[in-house]
UniProtKB/TrEMBL annotation:
It comes from Embleya hyalina. One of its GO terms (cellular component) is cytosol. The active site is at residues 170, 358. Pfam families: Glyco_hydro_1. It is an enzyme of class 3 (hydrolase). Substrate binds at residues 24, 125, 169, 298, 399, 406-407. It comes from the Bacteria. Its EC number is 3.2.1.21. This is Beta-glucosidase. Keywords: Carbohydrate metabolism, Cellulose degradation, Glycosidase, Hydrolase, Polysaccharide degradation. Signal peptide: none annotated. GO terms for molecular function: beta-glucosidase activity. GO terms for biological process: cellulose catabolic process.
Length: 446
């Protein structure tokens, strides 16, 4: 009998990381030639962000990055998922790259590698250059080509040291909240007319994956927010609504990426073989482009049928009888096992290795965070259970390293293993940081 490397009995070589995103931590929005992003614009509009908070300073990671790398090294993780701000690299979203913007990530990558931490950058975590939004954003097909061009500039600079790339973060949430509901930047409330933003993100990924492959990438992932969906009742109507929701949230992105075709979109009034924004060759490019799947998991979803003439064919039902995070999201660790085994059942051999690229919860501000410890412990155990059931999960990134700018909630939600005092920038590891260090260190040499 061999003793497990960690208390969770995960496979040898399982990777541990933390995750962040540029606009949520960097600040320094006007420095070294950075151009404005859709999030700068959105935050400046009254009423968009709780209490008018913005990412202008955030965690000041742009200046405190070395301290943050030290904190990660102290935690004992071997990987770091961060995002690259497109408007630092191409202030107007096109043309010659801005060397000073690339320098920042160049230094960060070197510092991570020097501490034995594998850099896993995400190229797009929602901060589109405002100039591209002015030309239509992800509703415009050309943005996909711009994205591939941007990816090429980043790969030219970092591709000698970065092996694993994540092209997109949560294209579903970006489409749904940014383009369909308007609660995130760029603030469009187009409902189902937001669909082209899904396809153009996927196309951008496909084009970028080809560029990254050419630059020697070993793995290219998309990190999507996935949720296991169940029907509120056994009724035919609720089950149809749940299937429709599953199609939109989970399959709309994963099917084209893994199977090279869109799911049945009849529930949304579309013929999947006649989508006006899909051109010939697009799906060949998108399908088969993934060499790893990034899964961001927060909670399951329960769905019921909508009223007959509602705009969308489903409605969300609150999950009761479980603990809730400070954000009021239900805590259901076994939902992650269900999600992962469900992916295996749905995609079979087409499913590439999986990395959990985000999982975590917001808690009260205090440094003592038993809720976070319980959340992480339960969810990591759920990953191990999926592994036992035959799902190839290779790593887990905690969202997040630091308390940060939580989008429309501003600084009100705290997701960090490390507390941040936003008045002074002071970082203080929480109890969960010490707990995780201990747990992932067990069985490790040195
Ligand atoms: C991610 O999005 C983002 O990638 C990251 O930037 C962000 O900071 C982090 O998660 C935390 O929010 O109403 O109870 O059904 C997460 C997307 C969408 C996941 C809403 C949970 C619903 C909760 N989230 N969702 S509930």
């Amino acid at each position: 009998m061999t003793s497990p490397a960690t208390p969770w009995d995960l496979p040898a070589g399982f990777s541990w990381g933390t995750a962040t995103a540029a606009y949520q931590i960097e600040g320094a929005v006007d420095e070294d030639g950075r151009g404005p992003s859709v999030w700068d614009t959105f935050c400046a509009q009254p009423g968009r962000i709780r209490d008018g908070h913005t990412g202008a300073v955030a965690c000041d990671h742009y200046h405190r990055w070395a301290e943050d790398v030290d904190l990660m090294a102290g935690l004992g993780v071997d990987a770091y998922r961060f995002s690259i701000a497109w408007p630092r690299v191409q202030p107007d979203g096109r043309g010659r790259p801005n060397p000073a913007g690339l320098d920042f990530y160049d230094r960060l990558v070197d510092a991570l590698i020097a501490r034995g931490i594998t850099p896993t950058p995400t190229l797009f975590h929602w901060d589109l250059p405002q100039a591209l939004e002015d030309d239509g954003g992800w509703l415009a097909r050309d943005t996909a080509a711009r994205f591939a061009d941007y990816a090429g500039h980043v790969a030219d600079r970092l591709g000698d040291r970065v092996r694993t790339w994540i092209t997109l973060n949560e294209p579903f949430i970006h489409m749904a909240w940014g383009y369909a509901l308007g609660v995130h930047a760029p603030g469009h409330a187009l409902l189902l007319d937001a669909l082209p933003a899904a396809h153009h993100q996927l196309l951008g990924h496909g084009l970028a994956a080809r560029v990254l492959g050419g630059a020697g990438a070993e793995r290219v992932l998309v990190s999507n927010n996935l949720t296991p969906v169940t029907a509120a009742s056994e009724s035919e109507a609720d089950r149809a609504a749940a299937a429709a929701y599953d199609t939109l949230h989970n399959r709309l992105f994963t099917d084209p990426l893994l199977l090279g075709r869109y799911p049945d979109l009849a529930a949304y009034g579309h013929d999947r073989d006649a989508l006006p924004f899909v051109e010939s060759g697009d799906l060949d490019l998108i399908g088969g482009s993934l060499t790893g799947l990034g899964v961001n998991y927060y909670n399951p979803t329960v769905i019921a049928a909508a009223e007959p003439d509602a705009a969308l064919p489903f409605t969300t039902v609150e999950i009761t009888g479980v603990p809730r995070t400070a954000f009021d999201w239900p805590v259901v660790p076994e939902g992650l096992t269900t999600l992962l085994t469900g992916l295996g059942a749905r995609y079979g051999d087409a499913l590439p290795p999986i990395w959990i690229t985000e999982n975590g919860c917001s808690t009260a501000e205090g440094r003592d965070d038993p809720e976070r410890i319980a959340f992480l412990d339960g969810h990591i155990a759920a990953v191990a259970a999926a592994g036992k059931a035959g799902i190839d999960v290779r790593g887990y990134y905690v969202w997040s390293l630091l308390d940060n700018f939580e989008w429309a909630e501003g600084y009100h939600q705290r997701f960090g293993l490390i507390h941040v005092d936003f008045a002074t920038g002071t970082r203080t590891p929480r109890a969960s940081y010490h707990w995780l260090r201990e747990r992932i260190g067990v069985g490790r040499p040195g």
